[in-house]
Amino acid sequence: MNFFLTDLEIDDIIKRPKYYYSDDLQRARWHTQDGHKKRELPLNSDQSISLLKVFWRQNQEDQLDFTVGLAYRFPDTNVDVNLIRCNGNSHSHSNTLEHSRLVQDFHIHRATQRYWEADPLKAENYAERTDRYNEIVGAFRYLCEIAHIGERNHGVRQLDEFKP
Predict the structure, then answer these.
(1) What domain count does the chain have?
(2) 3-state SS string over the chain?
(3) In a domain, 160, yes or no
(4) What pTM value is reported for the model?
(5) How many Å is the Cα radius of gyration of the chain?
């Protein structure tokens, strides 16, 4: 099976409305691994798309060393690809194909077809500076904004369910 997404497919997945349940966010527990705290949150969609999740990773010693991202799982596989990562400013980043460097800025990684073709394991290696957040909670809020992720309560019918 070929694991590949075009820019149009990446944009389509990112732009489709997604949501998580409040209870799931409260139940998403942090666990420790390799000096980092990590957790995941499954996402839902009213449209037919494969499994999506939000993931967090934060260094236990450096609060500015974090990432909050959106991952997509290819249908009928266990292959995930990160479509977006909102990173802290604990490190510099190089956009290898553009030969440019971001020096310890908050930055957002985004999967692109161009980077995917260059190295499928680093599809989201392109990054741009941002001033839209300065800590991990703000990064989660911003990810929700740019990836069209909303919050729902179990048992409460949403307004969009009443559309004709």
Answers:
(1) 1
(2) CCCCCCHHHHHHHHHCCEEEEHHHHHHCCCEEECCEEEEEEEEECCCCCCCEEEEEEEECCCCCCEEEEEEEECCCCCCEEEEEEEECCCCCEEECCCCEEECCCCEEEECCHHHHHHCHHHCCCEEEECCCCCCHHHHHHHHHHHCCEEEECCCCCCHHHHCC
(3) no
(4) 0.89
(5) 16
Give domain status of residue 37, yes or no.
yes
Residue 158's pLDDT is: 53
Under-70 pLDDT residues of the chain? 1-2, 48-49, 155-164
Is the residue at 87 inside a domain?
yes
68 inside domain: yes
CB 152 within 8 A of CB 22: yes
Residue 25 neighbours by CB under 8 Å, 6+ apart = 41, 151
Distance CA 141, CA 160 (A): 21
In this predicted structure, what is the pLDDT of residue 159? 52
Q: What is the pLDDT of residue 153?
A: 87
| CA pair distance 132, 106, nearest whole angstrom | 9
Domain containing residue 59 = 7-153
